[in-house]
Every structure is written in structure tokens, then in C-alpha cells.
Amino acid sequence: MFIFNKSNICVLLISSFLVITDVMANDHYQIVSHPNVIETDITRNYLRAIFSMRLRTWQNGTSIRVFVLPDDHKLHAVFSKEKLNLFPYQLRQSWDRLVFSGTGQAPTTVSSSEEMLDRIMNTPGSIGYLETTYVNDNIHVLHIK
Amino acid sequence: MYSILNSQLFGTIPKRPMVITAFFLLCLLTQNLPAFAQETERDNNSQNIFATLGASTIANNIRENLRIQGFAGQSFIATSNNDVFGNTDEGGSFGFTEIGLNAIYRPLPKLQLSGQMLSRRAGEGNSGIPRLDFAFLDYRLYSQETNQFGIRFGRLKNPWGFYNDTRDVPFTRPSILLPQSIYFDRTRNVGLSSDSVQFYGETSHATWGDFSFQFGIARPIVDDRDTEVSLIPRAQGNLSPDVTILGRGLYESPNKRFRFAVSGIWFNADYKPGTADTLGPGAIQFSPIYVSAQYNTERWSLTSEYAIRKFRYKNFGDQMFDSQDFYGESFYFQGEYRFSHKWEALMRYDVLFTNRNDRDGSKYAALTGLPAYTRFAKDLTLGLRWNINTQIMARFEYHRINGTGWLSPLDNPNPFNLSKNWDLFAVQLSFRF
To answer: Is ipTM over 0.90?
Structure first.
């Protein structure tokens, strides 16, 4: 019984570490959009549909414009795994399937966070992700419900 | 930006498909101008993005909503015996080339126009003459949260299996040659794309995952020689398409770890005899069912597909043909391992039985006098993929094959000259933009 309790405490401790690192990881970047996007809180499922390029319009009918960093960029990998629960290769495969069967478009790849900020600010309907240090008042931050 | 794109296009692609594509896009554009002028006007009112109307708004719309992509692949194939895409058994051949140019334009949020030109040079069956791979209009009838429903109209890729929709794009394939038991290259045009009307829908649930389907009524493309000779070995006449029905349902778990699909085709074609033909005006019915499954982790992708293919020949007025009513069977198991972003390895075992009631071909051999090994093929494949950068990829591949069941009769006209056990080595360099 004692051993059982001890292992329970271990599990608790380990999971609390996981939670803490998760919070820290979530802090250093944000999901961002152009200010004309009226959504503020979105579900993970909705976010996944957007980045899988299956959704074409926001709820008010305007086009969704998705921006991503290159496949091998660290922030892209972190965002894909943490927010979408997908690996970068899975995203690339589903985008390629859409594009080369003609059934959908791929997101626009930007080369740096500076370019991401610039494109998000200047493209109505845009969505992307940015390190928190780049976030300013000219863009919106989206939260996951 | 577009001048750069254009110079790239003209640099890598022969001019003729470019002209055809440009013409095609122009037609699509002019047909849809009124609708999309309306839309940009609405955008103007609500968002104040465009300062002027007319030509500059149209230019803006095109700049923001048109995407052009392309790819090219060149392979070198060498075989110990038997020919695959050219004369490959005497030192190898550079006979396999794939070039594609693709444009997707979304003038309105709900309307999408897509087109792809494809040039494929591969043995006697594919000369490299550019052909229209797909060109269609996609209208989304319903879109609410993560539920979608829409219609597609035009020449569409046939939705079956995991790979058919993008089978000519080297980057989307697991190997240089797709598992031939399922993705036959000799009758490829039948399965590839068809002039059709398709409905599609998808729904997504946070814990259950995504369900999607495509369903269509089509006129298949059967008028090429490779298909005719493969389906009717001594064809003097021509095949013409008849109404064909096809569809695919796909399930993906929320993190796409599990992917599972079932697809089916009910294919029909009629035979028009030649002038001194011994065959009558017969009909071919071909109805395969495909079951596909995949499991993905960060480093591994395990894939397997199974197909059972029903063939029925009737009214040819020839006992040999009209008695043909059989099931073909195919399956493969495939493992892909990602060492890093740059390197991936592949291992696959792929099996084809032309007739599942005569797996070793002995009954066929007894009946026709032709070699039994032309009725099956077992292919063990080892491969390596090197992503040199995001645009350039190199591949190396080795096949050990027992049987000649999927070889093209156009490249190998005499079945008695074939070798039962043979090796195939292939290298490919591909580029995309």
C-alpha cells in the first residue's frame, strides 16, 4: 500500500513538471491574426481545421489566409506538436495532397518571424504564430478554448 | 514576383503546356469575372483594402488568390532482365521523366478553379506529350465551423487509395515506383483522372477525429493504347468509356496517427471492334475495392493497402474472353522511417495475383500456353530518400521481384522473353517550386 502511494506521488510530481513546462512553452509564442478577424477564442479542433487548410472562410465569410514558418523551423515544429498535435511532416503531406489533387491551397511560407509579423499586420483575414516578443498592438492574439 | 515565376516556368517547362495552361486560366478567369467583381466590391465596402476598382482590383485579386506550383522528376532505371519504362536491361535508361505545372485560383472564398498539366515520359505507353491531368471547378455549398460540403465539376483525379490523387508528384510518393500491385502504371490512365461530377464532404470532431468522403459519376479515360492492350491483349479496335461510379470514405484520428480509408470503383467500358477483328462489340466491367490503413508516429509511418478487383468480360463472341469472370487480389505492407528532416528509409513487400483462384498462374498456363509467372508478382523494395533542401529531393531504390504480373506488354511484347526472377535499381532527382 505504501509503495502504491509512493508511486502515486511520483506520478503526481512528474505530471506537475509536465504542466509547468507546458505553461512555459505556451508562454513564449502566441497564435496571432489580423485585427479584422472577429474570432477571439477558438477551439483546438477549429485551429487544426484552419492549419490543415480544410476551412476556407472565417465565420463572417471572409477568406482565411494562413501563414507558416518553414517546415524545419523550430517554432513551426513546436507550434504543430503543441497546438495542433501534428508533426510537421503530417501537415506538409496533407497540404501536398490538397495542392496536387487541385482540391485546396497550401499556406504561405514566410522565412522569418519579422516577415510573419509584417504579413499578419498587412493581410486581412490572416492567421499565424509569433514569439511573444514580436507581438504588438497592431495584431490580435487568439486564445484556445 | 510573377515575372520571376514566369521566367522559372519558361526555363523548366516546354512552352506548349504553358501556353495551354495560360489559355485555360484565361478562359476560367473571363467566365467568372462578373461574380468576382461583385465580391471584391463587397470586400471594398467592408474592409476598405482596395483603393480603386477595375483593373487594379482584378490584378490584386489574382495576386492574392492565385497559386502556381510545379514539379519535375528525372529517373534512371536499370533492370537485370525485363524492361520498365524503356530499354532498361542493357545498362539502364533515363526513360522516366515527370513534369507538372499546377494552378489553383480562388476568385471567391467559396469558389475554386484548379488545373494541372502533366508530361510523363515512361516507356512505350507514355511519350511525354503534355496532357490535361485535371481542370475543375469546386464550389463549397455548405461550410459551418468544421463541417464542409461541396461539389466539383470537370476533369478530376479519381479518389481511391492513399496515393492515387497525387501519384505523379514524386514528393508525395513513398518511393520512385508506387506499389505496382495496386497502382498499376500500365493501365494508369483508367484509374488516374476522369471527366466527372463529384460531391465531397467532411466533418470533424474534437475527440473522435475527421471523417471525409468523395463520391462521383464519371466518364473514364480509356482511349490509350497501353490500357487497350493490357485489358484486351489482341485488341484491334478501340475502347470507349461508359458511365462509371466511384467513391472514397476516409477516417483520420484527431492527431492523424491513424488513417483508414475504403474506396471503390464501378468501371465500365465498351469495345468497338476493328475492321478485320475476330472479337465482337463486347463490354468490360471492372470493379475494385480498396482498403487502406496507416499508422504514423514522429519517426515511423506504417502503411498497408489491400485491393480485390473484379473483372468481367462479356459479349466479345469469343469463348476465351467471355469466360473471363475473375477476381484479382493485391496487397502491400510498407514501413517508412525518418532519421531526420533530411533522410528517410523505406521497406515494402508488395504482392499481386492477377486471378486469386489461380495464384501461381498454372491454370492460365495450361489454358493459354503462356508462362505462369506473367500472372503474379512479389516485389521486395528497399529505398532511401534524401531531402537535399525543401525544393530538391533525391531517391535510391532497389527491388527484388518474383513474377512479371505488372509489367507493361507494350514494353515487353513477347511473354516468353521475360525472366521470372529479376532485379530493378532506380535513382531519381526531383525538383519542386
So the answer is: no
